[in-house]
Structures
1.
Amino acid sequence: MATGALHRAGPTEYGALVMEYRRLGVSGFRVPALSLGTGTFGGVGRLAPWGSTQAEEARRMIDICLDAGLNMFDSADIYSGGAAESVLGEAIKGRRDEVLISTKATFRSGEGPNDVGSSRFALVRGVEAALKRLGTEHIDLFQLHGYDALTPPEEVLATLDQLVRAGKVRYVGVSNYSGWHLMKALGVADRHGYPRYVAHQAYYSLVGRDFEWELMPLGLDQGVGTVVWSPLGWGRLTGRLRRGQPMPEQSRLHATAEFGPPVPEDYLYEVVDALDEVAAETGRSIPQIALNWLLQRPTVATVVVGARNEEQLRQNLGAVGWKLTPEQMARLDAASARPRAYPYWHQAFFGERNPPPV
């Protein structure tokens, strides 16, 4: 299964860019190496600092993506209270067959007692609402945005099986699960013949490598592809944060840092120094290097990038069509390495029987 999880389809060229398509886990479903996240669509509530892209600009951004071979767009019901899905739906009108849509549910979406979680009630209603906002009859990849410890996995997976059989969902995945959460669900799916999760949308970056301790080996073993969110470390690897300098005025970290993963400053700047060195050697930007590093990691099927505007989008698209050298990868690995938590540091002493995934 590990081999299947890493299989990559041949690249397709669009102008000066070469977009690679990869199998999502061990499924037959192929996704582009980069996907566009729609957290900047809508611009309502907590996500307003990320961006406020409306339908007309979103349509133009999707044009740019499709020209580059990026045809997958990721959303969620909680992004701007559903406005992101609505904007995406408007932007893809008339070309639904050209795009792949992934979206998510399970976080609280209303005030009612059942407006949260992965119960049959919540999932069926959540999918129906997403389909309406997106203006489509099916979702290509539907992911559980977070783990629901109060709903039995048998109920969750039976409901997803129902949605797949009804043609409303094509593939299913999860997001932000721990290893045992995901492994238990896969066991239930195998026992009852329910659809297996083929994707795990997870936080992973050069300044957030906890994913490698357990979730990456699980993905390799079970054939679960990784959909990476926040690949630039919650906005820290844009190249704008510098040692001894104040945070830029327009950084989203001013408003959203408390909701994201903490990163010690000394550690961050060690990684940025290494990125600067590689940037000087390659002529690439820091974000492009950080994204390219991720694209060469095991289990990574697609990296979700965001963009406030067309300029940022084109910059992020420049992360494909080339590769960091093994020596450059090793330097970045060394600069971003962190002490492992137990029992992973203990297992590392017994590499003969517990080889690392990378």
2.
Amino acid sequence: MSDIDAAHNHRQKQAMNEIFTGSFTQQEPIPKDAIEAAVAVMRHGRLHRYNVGAGESGETALLEAEFAAYIGVPYALAVASGGAAMATALRAMNVGPGDRVLTNAFTLAPVPGAIASVGAVPVFVGVTEGLVIDLDDLAAKADQADVLMVSHMRGHMCDMDLLMEICDAANIRVIEDCAHTMGGHWRGKMSGTHGVMACYSTQTYKHLNSGEGGFLVSNDAEMMARAVMLSGSYMLFDRHLAAPEPAVFEAVKYDTPNVSSRMDNLRAAILRVQLRGLEDQITAWNTRYAVIENGLRGVSGLTVIERPEVEGFVGSSIQFLLLDWSAQKIGEVLSRCGARGVELKWFGGAEPSGFTSRYDSWRYVKSTPMPVSDRILAGILDMRVPLTFSTEDYELIARIIRNEVNIVAQSDL
């Protein structure tokens, strides 16, 4: 064996022994300024969003105004969760029992859950190898519903110009689920500004962290007035800063039920500080995402998801495909990476696991098999991109994934 071969084998053995020890569920600490803002709220004790002094704007109202300005819309509403935002949007659009709502087959359970929560029926639309909604399938199903709740799942945006062209031609109203695209954009147009309404999450693993929480935004005054009433404003809607004028509420205030789902001033205080630093966070995520993406290129049998140049994405998670791999081989990749400290999730499992599940897992919905989408779902592997890890950490993580995928690909499993 030559010295060069010996050195190569030594490096390979070293790579095989590398272990990652970081936690994929450990978030960054809440910023010091946000902690101080939260403590100030606790000191005065007025946590309820409408418990404010004369001439005072509470933290929640201020947060809504700042978030609306960031997204570039006139109206924003802070609520208890991203799921509450979606259900509120549907109710504000008068979607109810028996109505059909188009949505992605590749999404997380709260999306069809929100649809089912108002008595409506999800109609699933396929997924492409780019992990976005299949626009050909959407066009084929456009006559089946007049509302689309499009999920920008795991931060992947489809061609939003073409999606809106399809929906406008079929008179389909669009709600955007932007839980994974807060701060993202398509051709410079912010995620959440294409449809009639848009929903965001501030759950711990999203782009702003308040444990639980969410936003609803819109340009439509009447729909937002309904949303504010639905969220539990009672007749205190004049205490909002990013809501329609009081006159707009006159048409809806007596006929819109209160299904309380407000955000409180404590969470809003934490979020206001984080919102000011969101663009820096996006840069940090995308830097780390690029390290992993580059580290996974060229691995035989592994498909990297190519991002369109016109998509301004937020790389807070990363996905890749092991297309046409057996469940046994994928399970082996998960197990081997896990043993070396790299936590991957699989969206193709027959049974739901943690937050991962398939459209046919949600048995409260009747679904028709979609073989093309099923093939893609069977190969999706997913990984969070915590900002608590350095770029060097992600170089190591990519090496581990490469190593284990290569080993399993060459095995007789």
3.
Amino acid sequence: MAEQIIPIFVAFAALLALIAVRVPIGLSLITVSFFGIAYETSLRAAIGSIGRLPYELATNWSFSAVPMFLLMGFVAAETGLTSGLFSASRALLRRLPGALASASVLASALFAAASGSSVATAAAMSRIAIPEMLRRKYDDGLACGTVAASGTLGSLIPPSILMILYGVYADVSIGGLFLAGVLPGILSVAIYIGMIVTRCAINPELAGGTQAEPDETFDRKTVLMAILPLPILIAIVMGSISMGLATPTEAGALGALGAVGIAVVSGRFRWAAFRSALTQSAISFAAIFIIVVGGALLTRYVAVSGLSRLLGDLFADNAAGPLALLLAVAVLYIVLGMFIDSIGLLLLTAPLILPLATSLGIDLIWFGIILIKLLEIGLITPPIGLNIFVIHSALDGKVALPAIIRGVAWFIAMDILTLAILIAFPVITLWLPNSIM
């Protein structure tokens, strides 16, 4: 067994070393997997795999949903459909203690659902919401922690790029994953806002010494027009899937078309913005595609190396059950999530953990939602959570890192509570897909 384990250990150590020295994760996955397959089988087999896998992925109907949802998000951002989210959320939640922080949660969740990127959401909202909270004398930690954590919600709220990639790798229904993410996403938003309201009600100084935002006149029509586009897009996507009218790929195309239509109706459509959205979608998809090819190649290497069987035997020999696997994955994701982006980490680990989950009889749709939640926790886990440094950089160091970390700790605790609820009550995740599909 030792002779079998050593090459695998060397391969994964080399992979982590390449990532550590900032070799792009897609290239790292392809390089290590190529040589691993060549070692386990033959150079000819490795060349055959690297030549065949990109074509297989490019012709995968489910995977073609990714560029459609990317286009929907970029059209929404480039045409300004997301620009009024914070002010609209602020008006809707103005009577709550800590209203600006609560509004940041709602606005970030909607923005992230459209953009598909937690880091991009944190960067954008840190320039919109945090300065306003600091101007109102909000606690530094609460202001920064709210935006850092809220940016991670987009992966749970469909449509989600992570869900599509997981669905392709796990060979489960992407529509089912989208439906499964609705209630956990809403639960996460509610728990975040509940924590903020409770803390600010007990200690108003956290929100600048006021229990709620002062009553300000606002135009209801303007507020609704600012906040409605993204819920409408999500309703188009989820409605077409849940009613069986469209596949996820077709729903993504409808969402992209819907974003263009809303931009035209609202008078925000500009050809320059549309061209920019097309360009950014192509660039983003190309980057994701390289990572996906690397992940598929790693899956092939894990299969020929026998690692999945070894891990399965290890769990069987120690009578380890689903809870043991969840604990092991939680530690792995939270630690690695501090260094590796969500997409890269998912594709790096999926070949190892999915066969184990299958062998233990775990529902893969429920398991996917748990994994995605863990992936997003890693982005805000100190000391090197990516979102923490994104916010620190966006604010030009005006808020010290310890203050941001202090603020994020409350949201990590809420994420752990959410995870515990989702693990204890799988029905929260599975009720919608089981009822509709």
